[in-house]
Amino acid sequence: MFQILLFAGYTFILGLIKPSHVPPVPLEARTLTGWALWKKCLMGIIPSAVLIFVVLGTMMMGLATPTEAGAMGAVGAIVLAAIHHKDFTSTDRKVLIIGVISAGIGTIVAMLFTENLIFKIAFAVTYLAVAWICISAARIPDLRDLIKQGYESTMRLTCMVTFILIGSTCFSVVFLGVSGGVWLEHLLTSLPGGVWGFLIFINLFIFFLAFFLDFFEIAFIILPMIAPIAQKILGPVVGDGPALIWFGVMLCVNMQTSFLHPPFGFALFYLRGVAPKEVKSSDIYWGAMPWIGLQMIMVLIVIAFPITVTGLLDKPVNVDLDKVKIEVPQIDLPPLDLGPPQK
Questions:
Q1: End-to-end distance of the chain based on CA atoms, in angstroms?
Q2: Distance between CA atoms of 247 and 231, rounded to whole angstroms?
Q3: Within a 10 A sphere around the Cβ of 219, how many other Cβ atoms?
Q4: pLDDT digits (tens, 9 = 90+) for 12-51
Q5: How do residues 117-160 score in pLDDT, each as one tens digit?
Q6: pTM, whole model, 2 decimals?
Q7: Predicted confidence band at 231 (pLDDT cuts at 50, 70, 90)?
Q8: 3-state secondary structure string, the chain?
Q9: Taking the domains of the chain in order of start, what are their residue ranges?
């Protein structure tokens, strides 16, 4: 939320100070007006917003794990690609409408009632509609090639991450085996400035390290070494429980800059791929600088105000052990017969 306000505020102020940097659509390009323009905008915004909610919204609501949300996002992207393709038939469009209606009915039933038979049938129809559209997408030649390319890229990326995880685990075992953890803890706890000196040093270290290492390498190699030390240093500030959450969010905000600055800024390469030839790479690099600055301001906000991260966490429950009573119910047992055994 704070990041959205920061970026939106910067864009608004930039539009007031330098309108030429955020130019409007030229008059000759405004061919639509009224409801036709609204319809075109909504048709472009709503599907993308639904896809974003399917991935991020389900995770934030606790309905799906990151892996499940990613899988739903991949399926949703295939569905969006299929319904926007020129070979999407009228039968496929009818199946899409049936699936959307079924999903709406299932959602309403789940909100107003319990998950009964109608809910299960509605979402079963939705799943069948999604499967139908995915199969239709696989039948379209160019979409089939894109799906195949996506599968291959995902497999290569997954293998890369797996081998990075294996290598980082071996490195951590060797590093801890030669008492590297003790040396690193002594180094970081001896920094001047106490807690704030530690946070400033770590964030500057991660920021400059992101120029040369990818997010995965930092997350799998560097963070496991400094996380126990961070919990020990930050525990007195926010508590042992929220310490690592605060520290993790802080570093995630910091590492977002790795997508914006060279030489490994993926966002810069994506923009380079769609920008016209008249736009120089140096222009893209300089244009990313304000956003890197805004991201660092966000890091400072998280450091200075831990409540921005810990404010919504569950508060610890204080229990007075002297007042705890455990009541054991009395069980009436039949009397024991200790007489001679019956013949």
A1: 83
A2: 8
A3: 19
A4: 888 888 888 888 777 777 777 788 888 888 888 888 888 8
A5: 888 888 888 889 889 988 888 888 888 888 888 888 888 988 88
A6: 0.66
A7: confident
A8: CHHHHHHHHHHHHHHHHCHHHCCCCCHHHCCCCHHHHHHHHHHHHHHHHHHHHHHHHHHHCCCCCHHHHHHHHHHHHHHHHHHCCCCCCHHHHHHHHHHHHHHHHHHHHHHHCCCCHHHHHHHHHHHHHHHHHHHHHHHCHHHHHHHHHHHHHHHHHHHHHHHHHHHHHHHHHHHHHCCHHHHHHHHHHCCCCHHHHHHHHHHHHHHHHCCCCCHHHHHHHHHHHHHHHHHHHHHHHHCHHHHHHHHHHHHHHHHHHHHCCCCCCHHHHHHHHHCCCCCCHHHHHHHHHHHHHHHHHHHHHHHHCCHHHHCCCCCCCCCCHHHCCCCCCCCCCCCCCCCCCCC
A9: 179-312
Question: Looking up tokens 């999604």, which residue turns up?
Answer: 130
Tokens 């500057």 map to which residue? 204
Tokens in use for 180? 């590297």
The amino acid occupying position 10 is: Y
